Amino acid sequence: MSEDHRPRTPREKYGEELRLRRTAARLTQEKLGDQVVCSPTLISHYEAGRRLPKPDDARRIDQALGTDGFFARWLEDLETKYTDHFAVVAELEQQAVMMQQFALTLVPGVLQTDDYASALFRAYRPNYTAAELDEFVVIRTNRRRVLEGPARPVVWTLLDEGVLRRRVGGPRVMAEQLRRIADMAEAGQLRLHVLPYEVGAHALLQSLLTLMAFDDSAPVAYVEGFLTGNLMDDPALVTASQTAYALALSDALSQQESLALVRAAAEEHAHGQQ
């Protein structure tokens, strides 16, 4: 693996093997797509690791390439509960040695408590069952494991003050969530900074941002919007993202001041204040 690329995720390794097997079979993406009954563009997405085939498509790929169920069996190990745009990011979180997060309106997913995550799910899903709610919360909060154990990454968390003030799930839930973040910062699990309202405009005002760094591989940047996300590994875009993070961090409160503000906001929520 070249050192000037980020680590390959399992789904990207799957796609690379598919490309190699297709090439060895002397099939173009278009010809393989004809046999799988899908577009060549979709085959391209599979090979790039952006998408995974459905089980039936994987079986047709095996039939077309004569691979005796190889891709169908491997697919079972790659199934993910995450949306397509986030699945690769979730895999990269497990490999990162440093994560720098900026949150504009909501607590970053990897830091969310069960009740906070549950409140978010109820807010944007008009119809849900208790089982679906429980599954969503487990999927979201299982990401917290990346912050546990001796191999956990160095984590920087930069929060816009709006994250502290938006009452997600009610006073008790918000107080618990903010106390959890402050406790983690005081325990050395993350470095915490807050961008207060009085800063006004800052370099990350338009978007959340996550930066990830790896051993022996180039860093990446990830931004997310409604039902979509963009993982960037282009050096120029990653550098621009790192610069924006550094600029925003320079406007933030110190860790001590940030901790005091987070603790104060938690108490305000606990007492039902605005």
TrEMBL record:
CDD domains: HTH_XRE (cd00093). This is XRE family transcriptional regulator. PROSITE patterns: HTH_CROC1. GO terms for molecular function: DNA binding. Residues 18-70 form the HTH cro/C1-type domain. Signal peptide: none annotated. It comes from the Bacteria. InterPro entries: Cro/C1-type_HTH, DUF5753, Lambda_DNA-bd_dom_sf.
